[in-house]
Design brief:
The complex is a heterodimer of chains A (about 200) and B (about 280). By secondary structure, chain A is mainly α. Chain A folds into two domains: about 110 residues, Alpha-helical ferredoxin (Fumarate Reductase Iron-sulfur Protein, Chain B, domain 2, Orthogonal Bundle), CATH 1.10.1060.10; about 70 residues, no CATH class. In chain A, about 55% of the residues lie in helices and about 0% in strands. The two termini of chain A are about 35 Å apart. The model of chain A has no long low-confidence stretch (mean pLDDT about 95). Chain B is about 50% helix and about 10% strand. The model of chain B has no long low-confidence stretch (mean pLDDT about 95). The chains are: A mainly alpha (about 200), B alpha/beta (about 280). At the A-B interface, α4, α7, α8, α9 and α10 of A face α3, α5 and α9 of B.
């Protein structure tokens, strides 16, 4: 990935990025990384596309390459398989570290500081909105809203016939299941948003 | 043996057959299930770290008030709720953060168990094989563990992350042949389906291709996302790569149910996308 970005511009590094990440839940152990590359050797995404390289993203974050890390499309490609987490000799907990970096990126994206190319956070938001409304995932609504937002109307139409099969098999509810104590769910969202 | 049953969102929707077969098999094996009252989504793979652990912890509090440990068939939910429990037990600021978010003072009193773990290690395969009415002789299956059932092993503490055995041993205990399967603990890419379909279909395609080459009659799984990828996406993979796979994908509960002599409806075998008819005739 460094090749793509060329030579590191040392005058433009943010030394606080690593502290910002380590203050985020899941990012606590980032400074332990000694760049062994066990994560890369375990990563199924790297196996498909060598541009996705968790070791490099960690090194770039430690160096303080703020914009390159936060706007990297590769932080959204983590499949959350925990293979790197399992093997990391420094217990960097990379799966959760990627989540911590993604949370910062999402916030910076919402504030207009960086551009996010991946559609992953858009779909995730549709899912989370369902939990916010009902306390559970209402699959029908999440898929309609999530697919519409990420793949457009044409993308959504490609799901229609499968949707009918699902309905026929009783695998798709027409109405959401709701948690009774929704005030508790609202309380969780409120408490975390105030942080 | 009684548990608070946490179905999770998938088992009440697209993984309905996992829910149905779980209840049917538990009934025969004497595992008492009472659905966790007013459970909420665990955050799945979509919520942030903080939201996932907090949402998951609310369910643990409900179980604690009932005085029951939690039984989870879905590997995503199992992983999240186990990680929440472990984070609470670890103490420190994460514990404080979670307890503040849920407005409780939960201390990690409840145990979180995967259904596969309970059947293999609590019921035991010896007892299970005594219950077998229709040994699955001649049936060749590959075990597919995927990711979230076994990793991170330091938290889930259930099967070996490098050489997992629970599904292998289970398949054999039911009288079927368990084929050695290189992709057994590889990722299906399900988390990327909506954003990077190309990647996820490639990952699942590789898993299905090996199973097909081995001459398996079915793949046995323990996770609804793996199942959705291998079963529901199978026809998309066939047309994308111009190959024929036609391989039934069974939840391990459906496989157990077949050996226990349970019927198609009791196991939700009509709900799988790839037809399971030829398996039932075996």
């Amino acid at each position: 990935m460094m090749d793509e970005f060329g030579v590191v511009d040392a005058s433009n590094l943010d030394p606080n990025l690593k502290y910002e990440i380590s203050n985020q839940l899941g990012g606590e152990n980032i400074k332990r990384c000694f760049q062994c590359g066990t994560c890369v050797a375990s990563c199924p995404i790297w196996e498909i596309d060598e541009r996705f390289n968790p070791r490099k993203i960690i090194r770039m974050a430690l160096l303080g390459m703020r914009e390159e890390v936060l706007s990297s499309e590769f932080i959204w490609l983590c499949s959350k398989c925990y293979a790197c987490y399992e093997r990391c000799p420094q217990d960097v907990r990379i799966t959760e570290l990627m989540g911590a970096i993604a949370s910062i990126a999402e916030r910076e994206g919402e504030e207009g500081n960086i551009a996010i190319k991946s559609t992953k956070p858009i779909f995730d938001k549709a899912f989370i909105n369902s939990i916010r409304k009902y306390g559970r995932n209402f699959e029908m609504e999440t898929i309609i809203k999530g697919v519409l937002a990420t793949k457009g109307i044409k993308g959504l139409l490609s799901y229609v016939s499968d949707g009918f099969t699902m309905l026929k098999k009783g695998k798709l509810g027409l109405r959401p299941e709701r948690v009774k104590e929704m005030s508790q769910i609202g309380g969780i969202f409120k408490a975390l948003e105030e942080k | 043996m009684n548990f608070a049953y946490y179905p999770g969102c998938y088992l009440h929707a697209s993984a309905r057959e996992y829910d149905i077969s779980t209840m049917a098999v538990c009934k025969v094996l004497g595992i008492g299930l009472s659905e966790l009252e007013d459970w909420n989504c665990c955050g799945a793979l979509e919520a942030s770290n903080t939201l996932t652990l907090s949402l998951s912890a609310r369910n643990l509090v409900i179980a604690k008030k009932k005085g029951l440990d939690v039984l989870v068939p879905c590997s995503i939910c199992f992983n999240n709720i186990s990680r929440a429990n472990s984070a609470i037990r670890g103490g420190g600021i994460t514990k404080t953060m979670i307890n503040e978010a849920i407005g409780e003072s939960y201390q990690g009193e409840v145990e979180v168990r995967h259904l596969l773990d309970i059947i293999v290690n609590d019921i035991g395969l010896e007892k299970l094989s005594k219950e077998v009415k229709v040994p699955l002789e001649g049936l060749r299956s590959v075990p597919y563990y995927g990711c979230l059932t076994i990793r991170p092993s330091a938290i889930l503490k259930f099967d070996d992350p490098d050489t997992p055995r629970s599904l292998d041993d289970l398949i054999k205990a039911l009288g079927a042949d368990c084929l050695p399967f290189k992709h057994k603990k590889d990722c299906c890419g399900g988390n990327l389906l909506m954003s990077s379909e190309e990647f996820s279909l490639k990952m699942t395609g590789d898993i299905l291709s090996e199973a097909k080459e081995l001459g398996a009659d079915c793949v046995t799984v323990a996770c609804p996302l793996c199942h959705a990828m291998l079963d529901y996406q199978q026809s998309k993979i066939e047309s994308k790569y111009d190959i024929v796979i036609d391989l039934p994908i069974l939840y391990f509960t459906q496989l157990i149910g077949l050996a226990l002599g349970l019927g198609e409806k009791e196991l939700g075998l009509d709900k799988n996308f790839v037809s399971t008819v030829k398996l039932r005739r075996k």
